[in-house]
Design brief:
The chain has 280 residues and is mainly beta. The chain has helices at 18-26, 79-82, 216-226, and strands at residues 3-6, 29-36, 42-50, 56-62, 74-75, 88-93, 97-98, 116-119, 123-125, 128-131, 139-143, 148-151, 159-164, 167-171, 174-175, 186-191, 197-203, 230-233, 242-245, 251-253, 260-261, 265-266, 273-279.
C-alpha cells in the first residue's frame, strides 16, 4: 500500500492553518490527510487523539427521541447540529441504523432530517442508555472512571459514553480477516493496547477519480499500520463523516461525504448520533 502525506483537508472544508494544527496538538489531537494510490486511489482522514494527556474527553451525542416509549430511538439530525456544543473539537459518525416500514414492506431509506429511526447496537450518552445491543456488536465505550474499552458491550450501569459499529476489524493487535470485498466509504475507530490513544478514521469513497473506498480487509490493515491494537468498522457509506474545529472556531467537514443532491451537490446526511472529542 503506497501512502503519501499531505497537510490539506477535504474539499468541503477550509484549509487548516499551521497555527490550528499546533493548537490542536497542544490538546493531544493530531490530524493527517493521507492519499493512498495502491491498490486504488483513496483519500483518508486520520485524527489521532492522546487521551493520556487528560485535556479532552470522548462523548457521544444522541439526537432527540421522537416518540418517547415508542419504537424509534432517535430522529435523524444534522451532525453539525449534534456537535454544536462549543466544547466540541471534532466528531465522526458512529452506529448504523434503520428506518421503519412505510407500508411498502421495506424500510424507509430516504434519510431525511427529523426521520425517526432505530439505532443498531449499544448507544449511551452521559450514562443514559438509548439503545441496547440486540446482537453481539462491536462496541467502544468509556467507563465512569474515564477509561476506554473496545469489544463486547458492557454491563448496564458501567458505561458513561458508548457507541457501536458493524464489526471488529482488528483484535488484540491482529487483523480480523473478512471475506467481504465490497468497497465503500468507511469510518473506523481504533485504540492502542493501554487505552491511552484513540484513532478516528474516515475513508472517502464512491467518487471515481477522487477516492474509491476500501473493503474491510484494507481498512483493517490501515488501522494496524496506524498502530491500533483494537479497531471497529463503524457505519459507512454516505454516513461517513469527520468534522474538525478550525481557525474561525467553527467545526468544518474535512472529508468529502459521498451523498449528492441531484447527483452533483454535496449533501451531508443527517445522523442519529455522533462521537465527539470535547475540550475539558
Amino acid at each position: 500500500m503506497t501512502v503519501f502525506f499531505f497537510c490539506v483537508t477535504g474539499i468541503l472544508a477550509e484549509p487548516l492553518s499551521l497555527g490550528d494544527r499546533e493548537g490542536l496538538k497542544d490538546l493531544g489531537l493530531d490530524y493527517q490527510f493521507r492519499e493512498i494510490t495502491d491498490p486504488r486511489l483513496n483519500r483518508v482522514h486520520v485524527l489521532k487523539i492522546d487521551l493520556a494527556l487528560g485535556k479532552v474527553r470522548i462523548a457521544t451525542v444522541i439526537a432527540d427521541d421522537p416518540d418517547g416509549e415508542g419504537p424509534a430511538e432517535a430522529a435523524l439530525t444534522s451532525p453539525l447540529k449534534l456537535a454544536s456544543d462549543q466544547s466540541v473539537l471534532a466528531f465522526v459518525n458512529t452506529n448504523p441504523w434503520s428506518g421503519f416500514d412505510d407500508g411498502s414492506k421495506k424500510n424507509d431509506h430516504g434519510w431525511l432530517e427529523g426521520q425517526p429511526v432505530d439505532i443498531h447496537g449499544f448507544a449511551v450518552s452521559d450514562g443514559q442508555i438509548r439503545s441496547r445491543p440486540r446482537f453481539n456488536r462491536s462496541t467502544i465505550w468509556i467507563d465512569r472512571q474515564g477509561r476506554l474499552f473496545m469489544g463486547n458491550a458492557p454491563r448496564e450501569g458501567t458505561a458513561l459514553e458508548g457507541a457501536a459499529g458493524f464489526k471488529q476489524i482488528v483484535r488484540n493487535g491482529a487483523l480480523v480477516l473478512s471475506s467481504g470485498k465490497e468497497r465503500h466509504p468507511r469510518t473506523a475507530i481504533g485504540m492502542d493496547q493501554k487505552g491511552g490513544m484513540l484513532w478516528l478514521v474516515v475513508v472517502d469513497g464512491r467518487q471515481e477519480g477522487y477516492s474509491e473506498g476500501m473493503d474491510l480487509n484494507e481498512l483493517g490493515r490501515l488501522m494496524l499500520d496506524l498502530g491500533c491494537w483494537n479497531a471497529i468498522n463503524m457505519d459507512g457509506g454516505g454516513s461517513s463523516i469527520m468534522g474538525l474545529v478550525q481557525e474561525d472556531g467553527a467545526l468544518h467537514i474535512v472529508n468529502s461525504p459521498s451523498d449528492r443532491l441531484f447527483g452533483i451537490v454535496h449533501k451531508i446526511r443527517p445522523l442519529p448520533m455522533v462521537l465527539t472529542v470535547q475540550k475539558k
